[in-house]
Amino acid sequence: MTDPVLSLSALTRDFGPFRAVDGVSLTIRRGSITGLIGPNGAGKTTLFNMVAGTLKPTSGTVSLNGTDITGLPSEALFARGLARTFQIPRPFRRMSVLDNVMLAPPAQLGETVFGALFGRGKVAAEEARLRDKARDILAFMTLDKLADQPAGKISGGQMKLLELARALMGDPSVILLDEPAAGVNPSLTRTLIERIEELNRRGTTFVVIEHDMDFVMRHCDPVIALAEGRVVFEGSADEARVNPLLLDAYLGAPA
Predict the structure, then answer these.
(1) Tell me: the pLDDT tens digits for 114-130?
(2) Domain coordinates of the chain in residue numbers?
(3) CATH of domain 4-251
């Protein structure tokens, strides 16, 4: 699977006189786990936000499976198979873990006036289907025993697993992960990596922002580096390990 699933062309974002992302052009290979690295302020999260539909680019385009999706809202992208997680999880803290996952798909029948008034049977059937699907996903993410717990009561690492569980409710072909390992204990990090790799074996493409270079070098191929809003490196993990710029700036030169 080497064909492109996600393509960025001259993607640019200005905030007044400050250019956060400067003409980035990238092709994400279908079935890959692509690592996106760079120092704080390099433009990584801004780039994610433009791809994920939470921020409109100043110029440039984003294509998913050959279709221009530039500027589409995140709900529309979720329905098209593109999902993202956040560096800081955003659960509904008072709601149960299960309900958080069930709420992920947008435009549910029960959220519409017509559905609430005239489609009670269909609403109930949809809710049952979503509940079964959510429970299956929670079991896959090892969160099934926490299904009835308030989301605000689980650990930070478990919230990262919950973020991914919510994304999976859309059956995405592409998932953008924003620092999935940050603040997660080693045991839950292993669980998270195992789930990412299993999903990848099933065909899901991942693009991962991560400052943990061990995570990137072990699990990502290719690796892309940004600096000052521009791509400064793109290649394999092996090539990244010996690249002078990355050794000096990100990976640490060997003694």
Answers:
(1) 555 555 667 778 788 99
(2) 4-251
(3) 3.40.50.300
